Each structure stands twice: as structure tokens, then as C-alpha cells.
Amino acid sequence: MIEPSVPVLPCGIPPPAPRRSTARFIVLGTVFICAACGLVYELELVALASYLIGDSVTQASVVLSVMVFAMGIGSLLAKRLRLHAAVGFGLIEAALALVGGCSAMVLYATFAWLGGARYALVAFSLAIGVLIGAEIPLLMTLIQRVSRQDPGGTVADLFAADYVGALVGGLAFPFLLLPLLGQLTGALLTGAVNAVAGGALVLWLFRRDLTPRARWWLFAANVLVLAVLATTTALVGAFEQAARRAVYGGQVRVAVQTGVQEIVLTGSRTGHGPGGPLDLFLDGRLRVSGRDEHRYHSALVGPAMESGPHGRVLILGGGDGLAAREALRNPGVRSVTLVELDAGVVDLARHDPALSALNGHAYDDRRVRPVVADAFGWLRGPGRSAGPFDVVVSDLPDPGITPSTKLYSEEFFGLAARVLAPGGRIVVHAGPVATREHTYWTVESTVRAAGLWTVPYRATGRLTGFTAGPDRASDATKAPHDWGFVLASPSGPPGAPLGPELEPLADARPRAELPPSTLVHPRYTG
């Protein structure tokens, strides 16, 4: 057990109360800063792992569970350092600043050049967790040296500062660090703050607890850590360019981090010739390829438009403007309302030469009305009075991606059905059939559970599969070779005129009824 002690001056007289109060405040301030930095490291790992590996729920569970386990190990290991709490804390903070600050860059490098980041993710979660877990026991020892409080009061103050710091770090990451600095620079800056706070506390407030040799080594260690972080920060731009080339190829033309996602465009400015056709990646996933997007979008929009009235069209997603292009090709279209979450995608679709040419300058058409909003929230709010629509096109990311799960729920399809006009149709992009059969038929079952009659079909001849980001796979048999769709109507089976390039799938429906996916019980897997 550690007994609280009262520091004494060289003459043997205890320091005055204000000095003890100031020292206690400084220690608690350091606890606050270290807790904020620790949570930023944690959120950096979760965010980057979700982007690089996919399935944010799984990655968050792996990071949090491994890190909490490692924190327990770190707390046990810190017991051996209590007799040398000051120097132990200084070394731990220097190591944590270096490991945590560089974690995002090393994870990205591992993914870009080695093709995977799972093992690196677990290793960093363990290392950072052990170091964070060792902080509190050592800080408890240090604060007892400058405070006359009973142990219970000391524990309360320490954990209050720790939890408030975690709150600040948790809010600073999504609202400040990520949008202003990005993941790599944000992690490096956090490491620098961590190193300065830990080093200053030990080298100034507890300098009498250190031998001259220990002071020199701690100072040198912190200077070295700060130098590494500063040098790495200066190289972030060149590193990001090299890593993007390794992931996306040598023709990266646009790379934008919006408040929603990272947008990358590759290919030539004209969409053909040197540089190749346009490819659009959203958070590392190939969303549009100029090689075969016409097959996808004509299969998505065509049957819904041709099977009944289509004067008013609603497109959910599709900020690239390509589904709008297909809708506008049909005579009789009076309006196209397009609901897209990311204003950055709409801006690129308007102004990028290759993308705007590919979508036929759809946004220049006066019939197109873009709305920047979450599709689910819009259908619950403004969308209820915006209808009715003859055709609703759900052009959203694959349902196996965790952020898209609510957009493939029974509740979502029920909301979409409410804005349909009598005889209206809804068509849903449901992911590839051949490689994700269970996911596809779960979508179809969920649409039927929302009270809609369905016509399942698919388009073959897909030329592009997993090429970059979380969708990259070394096994070509796992790459998607088709697109699956579900056409539906609340008033009976829609008479879909499926052309020879489209394959009806009603006869392939599973014999056993698959349970629908709901908000409280999502059933999709990546």
C-alpha cells in the first residue's frame, strides 16, 4: 500500500498549502491532457480500421476490447514502478506519445504496401492499452506526494480529471482534429501534446525525485520523440501521396477529405486517353468505374422507369449524378429530386470535368433538385411532404457496409413506400448476388417485409471488382461479378420489362424465408 507523504523543503519545513494546491492542480491537469490524448489514439484506431478494413462495428469491438484488456495488464505491470513513479511515468508518456502518435501512419503504411492492417491494429491496440493502463497507478503515487487528501478523495479527483479529459478528447477528434488536420496529422499532433505534458510534469514538478542522470535521459527521450513526431508531420503530405499511389494506382487526380468521407478520383481529366477511364472511390471503396458504370446504372434505373408512370423521380444517394442521367433520358420526366449525404460528392459531380461529362452534366438540368441530407432522416422529415413520387431509386452503398445498414432496414423501406404515388415503384441496389447471396436475399426479404411486392433481378458483365480500399482482395473468386437489384411496388408485382442483359431471379429465391433486417436487429454481414 502507498502511504501519502508530505513533501518537505531542504530545511525540513513542509511547503506552504498554496504550493501543495498548485502542484495538485498541475498533476490533475496532466491527467486531463493524458486522458484526452489516450481517447484520441483510441478513436484514431477505430476510425482508420473501419476505413481500411471495413465493418466499423467489428473494428470498434476489436480495438475497445483489446485495449481495455491491455489496460488491465498495464496497471499490473505499473506496480513494479511505484517506487520510481516519476521516472516511470516520464518514460511511459514518451513511449505512449511515440506509439500513439505514429499509429495511424504505420497502420496506413501497412495497409498500402502489405495489403492488410489487422495484425498491426491488434498490436497497436495492445501497446497503447498497456501504456495507458500504466498511467493511473503512477499518477496516483505522484499526486499523493503533493496532496494531503485521504486516498478516497485522491481517487475521486484523479478519475474525475481522467473522465473529463476523455470527454474533451472524444469531442475534439470528430469535430476538430479529423476535419481540420486529418487522421495522420491529428494523431501526430496529439502525440506531441502528450509528450510535452508528461515530460513537463516530471522534469519540472518532480525533478527532485530524479537523479541527474535520469533527468538527462528523460529530457533526451522527450526531445527525440518530439523530433520524430515533427519530422514525420513534415513528411505527411509526401507519405499520403505515395500511399495513395500504392492503393489506387498512379493516376490519383483528386483526393478530398470531406466531413463525411474521403473522396478519390483516378483517371484522366477527360475520362479517356492517357490515364484511363474515371474511377470514383468513397472511403477506399470503388463506387463508380467508367469501364462499366453504364451497365450498372441502366440496370438500376431502366426497369423502374419503363414499368409505369415516371413523371416525378426520387433518387436516394447517387450524388455522382449518374442515376439522374439515366432518369433524365426518359421522356415525360418532370422532376428529379436527389438526396445525397455528402455535399462534396455533389460538388465534384457538378464541376469535375471527367465526372460531369460522365453524368451528362445532369446537375445543369433544371429538373434536377439536389438535397444534401441523410436519406433516412429526410424521408422521416421533409420527404414526407415532398412526394408523391412515381419512382424511387435507392442508389446506396452495399448493405454489407455497417454505415449503410439502416438504409437497408425494414423501417427505411417502409418510409420510402410512404412517398410513392399510386402505382409507384421503388428499385433497390442490393449488392452482388453471386458472392454475397445471403446479403442479397436478406435485402429482398426486408423489402417484402415492408409490405412491397418484389421482382428480384441482376445484371451481369461486371468488369470491375475489388480493386482498392477495404474491398481489395487477393482472391479473384471473391470479387463481385454482377449487380443485384430488387424492383418493388406496394400495389402488386411491378411488370418489369427486363431486357436480355438482365436476369430475373424469382425462381432462385431461397426456400426458407430469411428474416428481415431491422434497426434493432441488423442481419447484414460484410
Please, could you describe this protein's structure?
This protein has 526 residues and is α/β, with parallel strands linked by helices. It has two domains: 17-239, MFS general substrate transporter like domains (Growth Hormone, Chain: A, Up-down Bundle), CATH 1.20.1250.20; 293-508, Vaccinia Virus protein VP39 (Rossmann fold, 3-Layer(aba) Sandwich), CATH 3.40.50. It is 53% helix and 14% strand. The chain has 15 helices and twelve strands. The strands form two sheets. The chain has an eight-stranded mixed sheet. A four-stranded antiparallel sheet has the order 1-2-3-4, with helices on one face. The protein is elongated and about 85 Å long. Residues 488-526 are annotated as: Disordered.
